[in-house]
Write a structure and sequence with these properties.
Elements: H1 3-15, H2 18-25, H3 32-40, E1 44-46, E2 61-63, E3 66-68, E4 72-74, H4 87-98, E5 102-104, H5 112-118, E6 123-127, H6 133-146, E7 151-154, H7 180-183, H8 192-195, H9 205-214, E8 218-223, H10 226-234, E9 239-242, H11 256-267, E10 272-276, H12 282-290, E11 295-298, H13 300-332, E12 345-347
Parallel strand pairs: 4-11, 5-6, 6-7, 7-8, 8-9, 9-10, 10-11
Antiparallel strand pairs: 1-12, 2-3
Bound molecules: flavin mononucleotide (FMN).
Length: 348
């Protein structure tokens, strides 16, 4: 793990109330999937190419047409105001300063329109489809109007996974910042928690529904099988994100690193493949890229960065990960992302 991650984690631990730290850190069930996620990237080794001109290394790429300066994006996570008073404004500012893509959660603690107005770089909107489809539609339309350039449909959360460490988190969040995007559309006195509960009946047809109402590409997050990735593409998705939700949904789910090759092979270049879960260094990112991902996302480490130093912390984290990636790419003989292919990795 990169030193800055450890420093920021320690800083976050010292500034955050224990129940907030636990809410962010928690995994579901016995936390087996959470525990395995970082270690699973270590199951691969790199096969460097000698004698390649790596005097300058470029990390620049395009994700669904958006130019970014690195293949490292910010995963959607809920309630940034628990981490820092500047909340999602700080996160989107830090992301833009580093030239990275930001994915805003449905469960943000800053209004979508405010985040869109503050965004100086590309951002996507993560959708939780709620029981009330009209409400979901209003939230999605707000994101489209605010400038989101793609939708990330989270497909692994029909119900929120049970976490033993979590229980008291609502206390820490003032009511007006809790589920703010949903609350805006509710009748006075309606229960935001109930209205925001995910609809467990969503299925592959939901992809087309979201694409139709938004006019945006839809990427499905939480895909851990090649066959399901193909079903998503056939149903109109622009891509998939290989993810087990940071070990917060189905405990004992497979680590992203181990199923990434299967998903990449099944997709076969028909759509974008991204991956998250336990990414903590440039070498982890390089392994993911070599296995065929176009980019990775980072979740908890951004929350620790935000808690430790707001926008500057987020920028510092992303820049450090980018620099580390450029360094290991140079040592592996890859001067740009086009030179990264599967021959760079082997199973340990
Ligand atoms: C505190 C927390 C909140 C999260 N909230 C969301 C969310 O609102 N929507 C979503 O699709 N994923 C959510 N996730 C999952 C992340 O998008 C991502 O898949 C995961 O954190 C990646 O693993 P990492 O934390 O090891 O980097 C959340 C994760 C954490 C830790």
């Amino acid at each position: 793990v990169l030193p800055v991650l450890t420093t920021q984690l320690d800083a976050a631990r010292s500034v955050l109330p224990a129940e907030v730290f636990d809410y962010y850190a928690a995994g579901s069930g016995d936390e087996l999937t959470l525990d395995e996620s970082a270690a699973s990237w270590l199951r691969y080794r790199l096969r460097p190419r000698a004698l390649r001109d790596v005097s300058s290394v470029s990390l620049a790429t395009r994700l669904l047409g958006e130019e970014v300066s690195m293949p490292i994006a910010i995963a959607p996570t809920a309630f940034h105001r628990l981490a820092h008073p500047d909340a999602e404004i700080a996160t989107v500012t830090g992301a833009a300063a580093a030239g990275a893509l930001f994915v805003l959660s449905t469960r943000s603690s800053t209004r979508i329109a405010e985040v869109g107005a503050a965004a100086a770089g590309p951002w996507w909107f993560q959708v939780y489809v709620m029981h009330d489809r009209a409400l979901t539609e209003k939230v999605v339309r707000t994101a489209v109007d605010a400038g989101a350039s793609a939708l990330v449909l989270t497909g692994d959360t029909p119900f929120v996974g049970r976490k033993r460490k979590v229980g008291r988190v609502r206390i820490a969040l003032p009511d007006d910042h809790f589920l703010v995007n949903v609350r805006d559309h509710l009748a006075p006195g309606a229960d935001g928690q109930i209205a925001a509960a995910q609809d467990p009946s969503i299925d592959l047809q939901t992809i087309e529904w979201l694409a139709g109402l938004s006019g945006l590409p839809v990427i499905v997050k939480g895909v851990l099988r090649g066959d399901v990735a193909v079903e998503c593409l056939d149903a109109g998705a622009a891509g998939v994100i290989v993810s087990n939700h940071g070990g917060r949904q189905l405990d004992r789910a497979v680590p992203s690193a181990l199923v990434l090759p299967e998903v990449v092979d099944a997709v076969g270049g028909r759509g974008l493949v991204m991956v998250d879960g336990g990414i903590g260094s440039g070498a982890d990112v390089l392994v993911a890229l070599a296995l065929g991902a176009s980019a990775v996302m980072v979740g908890r480490s951004v929350l620790w960065a935000l808690a430790s130093a707001g926008a500057a912390g987020v920028q510092e984290l992303l820049s450090a990960l980018g620099e580390d990636l450029a360094h290991v790419m140079a040592l592996a003989g890859a001067k740009d992302l086009a030179s990264v292919d599967r021959s760079l990795v082997t199973r340990a």
